[in-house]
Each structure stands twice: as C-alpha cells, then as structure tokens.
Design a protein that fits this description.
mainly alpha, 434 Repressor (Amino-terminal Domain), 6 helices, about 0% strand
Length: about 80
C-alpha cells in the first residue's frame, strides 16, 4: 500500500525518506514488509502519502481494564468472542 501510494505521488524512496526523515533503506524495508514502522513513522507516512494505514477498532470497549494497560492480545480477543 505504501509503495503504491508513493509511486502514485511520483516519489522515489529517497524523496519519501527525505520528506519524512527516514533513511532510504528504512523505506525499502517497510515497503517490502521486512520492517514494521513505529507509530510516529506511520503518522508521517499517512500525512505525506495521504493514506490511512491504521484504523481504530470498534466494539471492544468492555474489555477488562487490565487488558488495556498492556494492550490486547489475540488471546484476549478470542476469550471475548467466546463470552
């Protein structure tokens, strides 16, 4: 998705990296799926490429508060689904 959006805007990996403050090799690894970008980098990519990479998930509001402090796991979601 990132590669398609970058190409659609006519940007090289070098240009995109320069615009968001990341190295070319980092952009390459992200596009190839070898590296998951940080939340900060995701925000920069979304803004620069005018795309949405992360969406909020609805319908999990009644999970125990202890799950929120450490984040949800797949196990948490499976347990919730079984209840």
């Amino acid at each position: 998705m990132i590669k398609k959006a970058r190409e659609k805007k006519g940007l090289s990996r070098e240009e995109l990296g320069f615009r968001i403050g990341e190295r070319t090799v980092t952009i390459s690894k992200i596009e190839n799926g070898d590296l998951r970008p940080s939340d900060k980098t995701i925000g920069k990519l979304e803004k620069e490429l005018e795309i949405t990479l992360v969406e909020k998930v609805a319908g999990i509001s009644n999970m125990p508060s202890s799950s929120h402090s450490r984040g949800l796991t797949i196990g948490d979601l499976i347990k919730k689904e079984e209840e």
